[in-house]
Amino acid sequence: MGLLCSKNRHCTEADTEENAQAAEIERRIEQETKAEKHIQKLLLLGAGESGKSTIFKQIKLLFQTGFDETELKSYVSVIDANIYQTIKILYDGSKEFAQNADSSKYILSGENKIIGEKLSEIGSKLDYPRLNRELAEEIGNLWKDSAIQETYARGNELQVPDCTNYFIENLQRLSDANYVPTKEDVLYARVRTTGVVEIQFSPVGENKKSGEVYRLFDVGGQRNERRKWIHLFEGVTAVIFCAAINEYDQTLFEDEQKNRMMETKELFDWVLKQPCFEKTSFMLFLNKFDIFEAKVLTVPLNVCEWFKGYQPVSTGKQEIEHAYEYIKKKFEELYFQSTAPDRVDRVFKVYRTTALDQKVVKKTFKLVDETLRRRNLFEAGLL
Amino acid sequence: MASCAVRGGCPSDYVAVSIAIFSMISLIVRSTFPFLIHKVPSAKGSAFWIPVIQIIASFNFLLSIVMAINFLKYEKSHWWLSCYVWAVWFEGPLGFGLLISCRIAQAFQLYYVFVKRRLPPIRSHMFLPLILLPWVAGAAFIHGKKPLNYRCHLGTHWIIPVVSLHTLYVAVLLGFTGAIRHIEFRFDELRDLWQGILVSASLIGVWVSAYILNEIHDEILWLQVVSRFMLLLTASILVLVFFSISISQPLLSQISLRKREPLELKTMGQALGIPDSGLLLHTEEAVDVDPSEPLDKLLLNKRFRQSFMAFADSCLAGESVHFFDEVHELGKIPVDDPVRRIYMARHIINKYIISGAAMEVNISHRIRQEILTTTDLTHPDLFTNALNELIQLVKMNLAKDYWSSMYFIKFKEEARMRCCGQEMEEMSGTIFQGDFPKITMLHTRNKLRFVNCLAGYCKAISHEVMNVRFRSRFWFEEWQINPFPGFRIDVPRMSSSTCSRVISGGCFSSGFLFSKVFLLLPQ
Q1: What confidence score (pLDDT) does residue B452 get?
Q2: So what's the ipTM on this one?
């Protein structure tokens, strides 16, 4: 790259400047080489819609510069897309359910049917119109239709995203002409990840001294995306495996014959057995606890084959805790079944998370950071 | 002669066995050639398994003839050397039956795809065992009744149903082939099917003749020797001629052992003669790209699409853009050309849609099922919903980052160069002057080449498993240590010690090094 400095050239001012630049480059190379060795690689893995990207966004908000106004505004089209796609799923779902037995409750009123057709047409296009007051009102009216509510109650049979309620409740605000998404809106916005995204950050400690430097990788969770994971498996400090514990009665986006929890179980098993992760720490995030606690009291855990041995013991908060502990125990059993005896030393921790809750994520990550630091000190022989 | 005619080991027997061995070796070489020499990635699903099963069935068939009809002298003292193992099981359900069933399965696929214009309702892995059932039942029945004599010959009243079963399967293959004879295939599918039918029918003819002559004239020893020689010879020709990959993998069927020069594997678009497929023409418009334009419109421009594709590949998300590209190629095929449309649609489905496909795209279950259960593979909107879903995916994941990426910078640079290229070529020398030495057109080209390398380097960063250091070292050496004549840039002026330090394993993870260099280049 470029010509080498010729010994025959006289030292001119230009040469002095060039040498200074070369020296600067050398210094930076040394610095970066040193820094590279201390960067800890974290992978966010998990099935589709398990909350990986939400954790990723939270890390950006907590430990990087967060989202500036341009970035926030870039989510307007995403949120619009989420709303149109969701209403389309619900409307098309109601039509599908209306074709089966006991179908009268899924039939929309005449006017709402026309609105539904219009919104379904919008939802199938490539470019969505900006959400305005008129469209927001129509969506709101359609949402209130009992047929749509009945369909929503069976949302686990469709691919209704978790952000549905949140965006529908905030339609008025979202349809404002000068709408700028809030951080919360961005966290709720659903974007299916494809490929690999990474960020580098350092969780600054309370004493403000710089801590470990982490490089966090976010990936897509659908089956086709998983063949790309292998490119990231070398030199991983820790795997943060996200499992959405509310999805025990739902099927996959990419395969509606397969239960999501069963898929997560098999995926976790596969990840644990990867040769590259022999010494890698595993942080299991049992995510979407907020949705889980609302669901578990009405939908029994044993609809999922993996949890078929579950017996409810009580009601209310006690039952929620009992159900959660059962799931946690199942994952722990799976971990030990899938871990060879020579790997039992690797760190394995389970955390209850709600990725949308910044406080929870901050607290959880602090624990993760402490665990990894302790591990590093142990490996360095200082503990 | 008398003893070898009965017990085997005649010179002609050894010749026949040698021909059979040579035939098997040729078959194996022919089937593995594309993968070993041209490093073609192996296919998945029936495109892989059916040819493999054909090879195994061919081997079983030849071996059964050798073992059952006394080609070699050996004592049949063990159960696995008995007539029933070789002349019944290995010749029937595991040999000829399996061989012809594979072809029937392939012809069945072709019939459904090209005549019914939809994907077959029964997958090959279920269809093949199903059509093999009569052979298994027949073999079990014969094994139970034990009608074979000491020379592994069936009685006359047994040979009729056995030959009938063989003939029936050839007739079924004939039937499917007849049903698709009007299709103008682009590759050698029909020719291979007719060849297979001809040779298998000839084989049955030879076999029946040999049998009749042996049974009627078993005292004529030379007739026994000649008839079994002919039987093995015809079978050896059959297995070689019968094998074809054109049906399972039409592109691979173009790779020939005879061609000396390495064959550049074409895309399906090129193989089908789609205009401008895979080419980047000079006539392609240099588009002034406006990021506010819809992405699907921008992607219609081939140059932009290639740039975006390269960026998407670097983020390990390229399959969506490749899919767009091939669906775009499909769109160039006229609607009134159903055969080519079907080839292309089938290729796209096998490569992008089927679960576990090489470049499986991230689409919903419903959309995948819509495509796989379509009743019309030629429909112009077959992939529209999938395309829409993927463009949404790409817009939300990649578009924003692309505009600030090296790939877009490179794209703009190339567009600028193309715009100004003609004026620059007319100028004889200096185009820039100033603090830097005189820079000629050569340097501008070098800058572009450097940007190409930088873009490639950025791609390497994404592939953690690859030896990033190795790749960076290679590029660095290419630019510094092994400069091609004329491909040298005056900047940056790095000291030799800096260069050697970087080459010996300095910091490669930083695009910093190269970005710094880039900034030092004259703008």
Answers
A1: 52
A2: 0.88
